[in-house]
Amino acid sequence: MFTFIDNNGCKVNLRFDEGPFDIEPKHVIVFVLYQGKWLCTINKKRGVEFPGGKVEPGETLQQAAIREVYEETAVHITDLKWFAYYVVHDKVPFCKAVFTGKVEKVDPFIGEYETIGMTWLSTEELMNHSNLSFFMKDDGMKKMLQEVKYHERQW
């Protein structure tokens, strides 16, 4: 387990296994690396971040991951794999499940909802971007990027 304090001052436990969970995951984040670049969404309020969001009633974590990536980026993904989960010990603790996925198809981004589109960034561009979401700047995100790069070589 990797433990750190996030940029909001909350303790976070990051694990790279499938459980058992201290808290049931109700949020998802998806890492998609395609042609050497990371798929990111541009959130109107928070800035650049990996796609993800809340699980809707009746939806599995995997269904939520696929839906959120498409809604936020217009990218269809396949080969969804469990990667990690982390628990944020906020006033009301919550858990996020982290997946990796592969690009199947990219549709034109024509709508605007929570995001204003997507961008593809190299690891260096991502680490040095001037408009990163607060959670993209914490030690847990850096650790997950290290781990996903390692695991991609294994797959």
Could you name the key traits of this structure?
single chain; 155 residues; 9-stranded mixed beta sheet; alpha+beta; 3 helices; Nudix_YtkD; 42% strand
Write a structural description.
By secondary structure, this protein is an alpha+beta fold. It has one domain: Nucleoside Triphosphate Pyrophosphohydrolase. Helices cover 22% and strands 42% of the residues. It has three helices and nine strands, in the order E-E-E-E-E-E-H-E-E-E-H-H. Strands 1, 2, 3, 4, 5, 6, 7, 8 and 9 form a nine-stranded mixed beta sheet that branches. A hairpin with a 2-residue loop joins strand 3 and strand 4. The longest helix has 16 residues. The radius of gyration is 15 Å and the shape is globular. The two termini are 22 Å apart. The mean pLDDT is 89.
Distance between the termini: 22 Å
Content-based structural category: alpha+beta
**Beta-strand percentage range:** 35-45%
Q: So, the CATH homologous superfamily?
A: Nucleoside Triphosphate Pyrophosphohydrolase
SSE pattern:
EEEEEEHEEEHH
CATH class descriptor:
Alpha Beta
Mean pLDDT: 89
Helix fraction by DSSP (H/I, runs of at least 4): 10-25%
Q: Which stretches are low in confidence, meaning pLDDT under 50 for 5 or more residues running?
A: none
Shape category? globular
Number of strands: 9
CATH-defined architecture: Alpha-Beta Complex
Keywords: Hydrolase
Family: Belongs to the Nudix hydrolase family.
Pfam families: NUDIX
Protein name: NUDIX domain-containing protein
What does the secondary structure layout of this molecule look like, with pairings?
Blueprint (H helix, E strand, L loop, with lengths): L1 E4 L5 E5 L11 E8 L2 E7 L3 E3 L2 E3 L6 H13 L1 E15 L4 E13 L8 E7 L1 H5 L11 H16 L1
Parallel strand pairs: 3-8
Antiparallel strand pairs: 1-2, 2-7, 3-4, 3-6, 4-5, 4-9, 7-8
Keywords: Hydrolase
InterPro entries: Nudix_hydrolase, NUDIX_hydrolase-like_dom_sf, NUDIX_hydrolase_dom, Nudix_YtkD
Family: Belongs to the Nudix hydrolase family.
